[in-house]
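Q: What would this complex look like in 3D?
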Amino acid sequence: MKGMTMTQKILAAHAGLPYVEAGQLIEADLDLVLGNDITSPVAIHEMDKMTKKTVFDKDKIALVMDHFIPNKDIKSAEHCKCVRQFACKHDITNYFDVGDMGIEHALLPEKGLTVAGDVIIGADSHTCTYGALGAFSTGVGSTDMAAGMATGKAWFKVPSAIKFNLVGRPSKWVSGKDVILHIIGMIGVDGALYKSMEFVGEGVKSLTMDDRFTIANMAIEAGGKNGIFPVDELAIQYMEEHSKRPYTVYEADEDAVYEEEYTIDLSALRPTIAFPHLPENTKTIDEIAEGVAVDQAVIGSCTNGRIDDLRCAAEILKGRHVKKGVRCIVIPATQKIYLQAVEEGLVKTFIEAGAVVSTPTCGPCLGGYMGILAAGERCISTTNRNFVGRMGHVDSEVYLASPAVAAASAVTGKISAPEELGL
Amino acid sequence: MKANGRVFKYGDNVDTDVIIPARYLNSSDPAELATHCMEDIDKEFVNQVQKGDIIVAEKNFGCGSSREHAPIAIKAAGVSCVIAETFARIFYRNAINIGLPIIECPEASKGIEAGDEVEVDFDNGMIYNKTKGTEFKGQAFPEFMQKIIKAEGLIPYINSK
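A: Here is my prediction, written as structure tokens for the whole assembly.
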């Protein structure tokens, strides 16, 4: 019998099995089922067709209104109304609406709803974020969400894994975003298709929790089923500060089987940018020979709307001004982060620099609202996808980057690293 | 069970944003979603697609967002089957869960062109290119997934248990 990866151990425990191996089909118990204002209405409609009309556990369902709220139009208001009524009818404990909502993948760890050892499904592809805390979490569709809400179970094919051994320490303006963009550039948008991405090595220690959330968040952009980090002191400290729930630490066996292994020297990484129209089209800042002019900079999203991200952007924008003709939109991911940004003076810095600061929303990331692009426009964005038409017109372009690069680019009006500003 | 139709052909990494752009996700009505299906990569798709037609694509079909609206839009547009070299995993789950037949077959992906007449036999996984007179063997589903497909989706399957 071969050893198990961290992901396989968590899945085995939740399937009530002593051992699982890659390719095995299992049914696992769920610790949390998540949905948002776009995916939940479809799930609620599916639940209406079920014989079982009740939810499995009102405390283990999270409904977060975050994509199109405060509602951008009548149809999205109808969607939120549908979810609100469902949450009320089933007395859902973790229902978050205007006033206490945040972008789901920033909000749930902050609220202490996701901890190490959990199995979590969410009807949102970036549900893989919670792997930063040592949980198995993965995106599913609305029908899986409906079945999960009713039964508390989901079927999985046990994934094989790719090991990323991180060594070294990143330089000042290199963050988790650069790490994950580098990896996606290296293995491609289907490089981890159906597989776990397990991040290990002494380099993990030099990554903040916000860096790790960013890295796990974008595992899906390499096609991964989940991304996962070992549970170290920093992760334990985060969980103890945010959660009252017990956590379970799983570690990969020493003889666990990995399909591929990569070593990544964090100290050698440079600010990395994904060019249109795939997250794998990466270049380092040094490989961009000609100036790429931008019309808009977005700093936010479930990938990069956390406090570290805002602090980094503010450090660059402090005492500087967004270039005339460029729109810079800053979106704190949760109400708590927003308040923290106000108290730390970051919001003042952004406004004085000529940026706008929005209430938490997924808005522009998926071309919903709050920063839609016209034909031919270009945006440097800390979000996670740069597909055709992702942020607006089919002829617009999205360049994915870190908060440091997005903020520096907002000042210069072209894709730039902070070094260009003498930082 | 068989599918039979004319082929719309696409390349690698067709993402769910181009299958159904987020600007239309303020609706969850299948018929309405179908009117915008594939709009950002193929404006003519919705005008030309006929009931029973088949989509053939290359690698990683349905990557990106987990929106179930994507397979819902494809199914509601009348497409009877999607054949691809590989599928992104959430799209794969979603298609099975809502009863949209899909099949992985790298050889078929290479050997079928836009406009070809194709028949798919789901019972044995065979794909016949009637225009070119060629045939391919698609990857069979595990037994567990076949049960969901036979029940026409995850919800009817759970209801029947």
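A: To summarize the key features: Residues 12 and 20 of chain A are 6 Å apart (CA to CA). The two ends of chain A are 53 Å apart (CA to CA).
Q: Very helpful, thank you.
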